[in-house]
LPXTG cell wall anchor domain-containing protein (Lactococcus cremoris subsp. cremoris IBB477), 470 residues
Amino acid sequence: ADIPVTSVITNSSGTAVTNGNLSAGTYTVTYTATGYEDVTRTLVVSDPADTTAPDAPTVGSVTGNSTNGYTVTGTAEPNSTITIKDNNGDTVGTGTTDGSGNYTVTLPGTVGPNAPLNVTATDSSGNVSDPTSATTPADPVSPVLVAPTGNLTTTTSKKGAADATASLPATLKDSDGKTVPVTHVITNSTGTEVPNGKLSAGTYTVTYSAEGYANVTQTLVVSDPSNPTSPVLVAPTGNLTTTTSKKGAADATVSLPATLKDSDGKTVPVTHVITNSTGTEVPNSKLSAGTYTVTYSAEGYANVTQTLVVSDPSSNTDTTAPNAPTVDSVTGDSGSGYTVNGKGEPGSTITVKNPATGEVLGTAVAGVDGSYTLKLPLGINPGTQVSVTATDASGNTSEPTLFTTPPTTMNGGMINGNMSTNIGGKHFSTADLPATDEANAGWLSMVGTVLLSLFGAMFFWRKKNKEDKH
């Protein structure tokens, strides 16, 4: 059965929109009936397609000749495509109008003089205007003088001199390819004639004249010689970097050099100015995150620049400590010193300390494979407990690994090592070691070696006394 319903149209944000006031977009229609759950349907509203052709373009001028080609200028719908076709319907030139509707289209000389043209404008929807007719001009009855291409250049003998001479052609070609003798006049920017051979640094106009032809011109640029013996300030390489105290702060300070080298290797005092991307000077210590230019200046030198990049502190700083390093071997003795070998995080700093006092006994950097070798200073006694840690580039330090220097070995009945009851002088005694198997083993070993030493000393004392009595 047909059910009477009410309907509500809502936009993508859920706001109700009155039917009849809908703009292009996607909507939801919700149908409601008493005793039934609501149902919805999608409604798509679109703008009508553009089917209106642009107005026919205007043609302001058609200039040129069959030798040098033609130029067509005019106006049409802004940002439309201009198409120019010949009498056969072949496209001979295209262009695009600017935001104001102006266009300039060049045509090849093969289009020929007095050739009919049709100019149309096509908008972005592909709608094509009615054509506007135009005609290429007739070729001149007489050939024209062809101006030289490019600029002439010459150099003075020294900075500030007015003695430059330009090499000027004695002939030019005309539009028929004929060689034509010419004369020339050089004028400066004010239109004053300047003799060739008396030219100072600057830009001039050379005017070529030939009987029966219109004059043509060429630009002449005169420069002073570069002086390779004059030293220049050498710009620093790479970018400067610094960091703000926190995100959004404008308090970064960059360390800037007080001197630079010049190209002769001389140290030159410099001043510096920091500017932002808009060229505004920013005081050092008031820098926020961004890219800046540091300009170095020194008397008698051209300025040089360097890029400065200021960043906010990273929000994902490494706070994970390395794993505790391993101690794979401890070799040597108290007389020659101990060598510790092991592994830690590659690139981390390995530090050996007295765990009781915190005194640093040695440091090393773990290699790319994590291995390290560290020589302890002389005076550390056998059976001494020390600790080793690894610190990564972010300053995170691992848990310590404890180890004990090996006990002194016997050699020919005598004891090597320091037999002081304070084992280790300025370092530390094993009397303070925690009750670990390794520490106990070292302590028992030391007790044994002390007793053996006493027995040995007694034996040699008694033997010596007997020999003295005999």
Remarks:
- Confidence is low (pLDDT under 50) at residues 410-447, 463-470.
- The chain is about 5% helix and 35% strand.
- The chain has five domains: 6-45, 58-135, 152-223, 240-311, 326-432.
